[in-house]
């Protein structure tokens, strides 16, 4: 009898033990952001209209048609006059960069932002267990991650990763690395560092698909402190709910739409192809297809399925040659998301996502303001957008924030954050948030250089002043 009772009780005990073990392991697989620090370069690196014109005139390979193209691009880009450029631009050496220029640009960011972040969080560099650095277009030996470890004298057993070539979506790729390491190690601190080195990557030729990147990319960066220690939850700002990565590198069209290469004269640059919007849309749709069931409530998913079936049924039942009234089978992402953190790849990118997700100007304001104030800072752009939301006091406890980023390859990565506590610090926007949004986003480039539209190619000469 006792044996029978044991045999009946043992499976139940085993079941409870398995559940307890799963819950215990799950507890330390959380990923929290404790704090983050966006980089604001000094005012002497600000790119105003006058300085932008000087830089463009220094390129002797440009003609009137290229000037007209650049004017149109910068006017419609959504970028303002307070973005930042690397120091090499101010010494007029953008066509002859050195390795030291790229390293200096990164070290200025590293030592400013990481230092401020660790100081504010009261965390010693020796407490960092994991370091992930992503700077796509600068590879050094020793690596940039090793330079940080050396400068801050971090521990010998620190786990470090140095990512290059991952493009504008690299910060979420770095986040995925942190998340996966957290699954295997308990109670750890991670430091994620995202930036881009522009100093060695200025394009000095006249290929329109390559000079466009000169108009969009600006200096910036972000350092992020993360942990999986649940006892620190009360100090955390955000909790990671899910993350999805979509990579279309196997498609030749997608692979080649954003690529670093040489032009016909052997000048290195970054090619942005005409098929870029199509590649971005395709990867975006595929990414949403995977992440939607994880972030939307069941009622919204059921509504979408029902509307899709009705639409399909109506099409089958319609006589040939007739058209049915519009029955939209779109998903309402606002049913599961409170805020949208969109990569500032350009005005067209922001507009496109806004249309696809049926977002309002209120939803798009953080991305538009970030593009206008800081430009496209590559992998760090998302965090400037997030900081804008915080500065505007939009982020309340329990809110859900969807991050969407794109990158060469072609990649679309997204993740969902839950706000752990009310946030209103503002980070990099703190001292100027009251001035945003400005009355107009129209930049003064057309007013200053619009006369070039009426010039005759046969008689055009670059003015001396």
TrEMBL record:
Domain (Beta-ketoacyl-[acyl-carrier-protein] synthase III C-terminal) ranges: 335-418
Pfam families: ACP_syn_III_C, FAE1_CUT1_RppA
Pathway listed: Lipid metabolism; fatty acid biosynthesis
GO biological process: fatty acid biosynthetic process
CDD domains the record matches: CHS_like
GO CC terms of this entry: membrane
Catalytic activity: a very-long-chain acyl-CoA + malonyl-CoA + H(+) = a very-long-chain 3-oxoacyl-CoA + CO2 + CoA
SUPFAM superfamilies for this protein: Thiolase-like (SSF53901)
Family: Belongs to the thiolase-like superfamily. Chalcone/stilbene synthases family.
Descriptive protein name: 3-ketoacyl-CoA synthase
Native organism: Durio zibethinus
Highest classification ranks of the organism: Eukaryota, Viridiplantae, Streptophyta, Embryophyta, Tracheophyta
């Amino acid at each position: 009898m006792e044996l029978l009772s044991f045999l009946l009780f043992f499976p139940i005990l085993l079941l409870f033990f398995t559940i307890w073990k799963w819950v215990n392991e799950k507890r330390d697989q959380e990923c929290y952001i404790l704090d983050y620090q966006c980089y604001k370069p000094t005012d002497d690196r600000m790119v105003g209209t006058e300085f932008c014109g000087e830089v463009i005139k220094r390129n002797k390979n440009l003609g009137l048609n290229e000037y007209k193209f650049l004017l149109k691009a910068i006017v419609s880009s959504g970028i303002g006059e307070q973005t930042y450029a690397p120091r090499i631009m101010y010494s007029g050496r953008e066509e002859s960069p050195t390795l030291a220029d790229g390293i200096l640009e990164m070290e200025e960011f590293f030592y400013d932002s990481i230092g401020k972040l660790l100081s504010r969080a009261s965390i010693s560099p020796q407490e960092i267990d994991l370091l992930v650095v992503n700077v796509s277009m600068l590879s050094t030996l020793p690596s940039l991650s090793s330079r940080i470890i050396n400068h801050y004298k971090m521990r010998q057993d620190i786990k470090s990763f140095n990512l290059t070539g991952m493009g504008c979506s690299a910060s979420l790729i770095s986040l995925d690395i942190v998340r996966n390491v957290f699954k295997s190690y308990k109670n750890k601190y991670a430091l994620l560092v995202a930036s881009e080195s522009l100093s060695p990557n200025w394009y000095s030729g006249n290929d329109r698909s390559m000079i466009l990147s000169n108009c969009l990319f600006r200096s910036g960066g972000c350092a992020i402190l993360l942990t999986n220690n649940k006892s620190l939850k009360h100090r955390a700002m955000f909790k990671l709910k899910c993350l999805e990565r979509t990579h279309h590198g196997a498609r030749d069209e997608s692979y080649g739409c954003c690529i670093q290469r040489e032009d016909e004269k052997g000048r290195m640059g970054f090619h942005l192809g005409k098929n870029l919007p199509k590649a971005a849309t395709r990867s975006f749709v595929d990414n949403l297809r995977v992440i939607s069931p994880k972030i939307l409530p069941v009622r919204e998913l059921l509504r979408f399925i029902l509307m899709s079936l009705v639409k399909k049924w109506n099409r089958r039942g319609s006589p040939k040659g007739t058209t049915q009234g519009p029955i939209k089978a779109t998903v309402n992402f606002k049913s599961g998301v409170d805020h949208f953190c969109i990569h500032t790849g350009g005005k067209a990118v922001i507009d496109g996502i806004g249309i696809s997700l049926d977002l309002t100007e209120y939803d798009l304001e953080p991305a538009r303001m970030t593009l206008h104030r800081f430009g496209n800072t590559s992998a760090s752009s998302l965090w400037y957008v997030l900081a804008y939301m915080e500065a505007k006091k939009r982020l309340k406890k329990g809110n859900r924030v969807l991050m969407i980023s794109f990158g060469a390859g072609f990649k679309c990565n997204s993740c969902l954050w839950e706000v752990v506590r009310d946030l209103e610090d503002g980070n990099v926007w703190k001292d100027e948030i009251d001035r945003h949004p400005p009355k107009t986003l129209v930049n003064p480039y057309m007013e200053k250089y619009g006369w070039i539209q009426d010039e005759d190619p046969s008689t055009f000469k670059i003015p001396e002043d």
